[in-house]
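Quiz preparation item.
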């Protein structure tokens, strides 16, 4: 089983729409342009075109891109995505949103009304970024990795506070509690 996962310290602050970025952000606009070029159905990549049409036909919001196809198309861009996904995936998602709007304006309008966010996922050979749970370490923080493994046990993380200390500035008192 293979799945991709974006390890990020600030994943909740990722931007998902080109509307979230000021028009003066030329770097973001350039990334969107590169991804639009990659997703362009007229580019001749029948596999991408078929995946986009299937996504629209099934009214899904996520398309899986083969990392090997992206690497073949633009190796530098692929390496940049692998090493800094937080900088590139919002632009890729925005380009996907625009591409869906060009292919099927009706579906894009319905998706916008329901506040559906389009997202890009990755599949295929991640090379050195394909790890198992034991080899996953801090060098992969903020990198795009594929984790191969079998989940044998799953439990909730329950943080425990052994001792807490609270300070009140008004009364200049502190209170301690132990569990």
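Solution:
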């Amino acid at each position: 089983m293979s799945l991709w996962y974006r390890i990020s310290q600030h994943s909740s602050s990722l931007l998902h729409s080109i509307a979230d970025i000021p028009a003066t952000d030329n770097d973001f606009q350039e990334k969107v342009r590169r991804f639009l070029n990659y997703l362009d159905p007229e580019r001749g990549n029948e596999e991408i075109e078929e995946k986009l049409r299937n996504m629209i036909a099934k009214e899904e919001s996520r398309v899986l891109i083969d990392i090997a196809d992206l690497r073949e198309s633009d190796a530098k861009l692929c390496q940049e995505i692998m090493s800094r996904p937080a900088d590139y995936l919002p632009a890729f998602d925005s380009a996907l949103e625009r591409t869906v709007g060009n292919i099927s304006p009706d579906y894009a309008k319905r998706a916008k009304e329901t506040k559906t966010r389009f997202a890009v996922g990755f599949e295929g050979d991640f090379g050195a970024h394909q790890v198992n749970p034991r080899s996953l370490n801090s060098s992969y923080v903020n990198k795009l990795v594929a984790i191969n493994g079998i989940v044998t046990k799953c439990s909730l993380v329950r943080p425990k506070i052994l001792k807490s200390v609270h300070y009140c500035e008004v009364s200049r008192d502190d209170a301690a509690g132990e569990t």
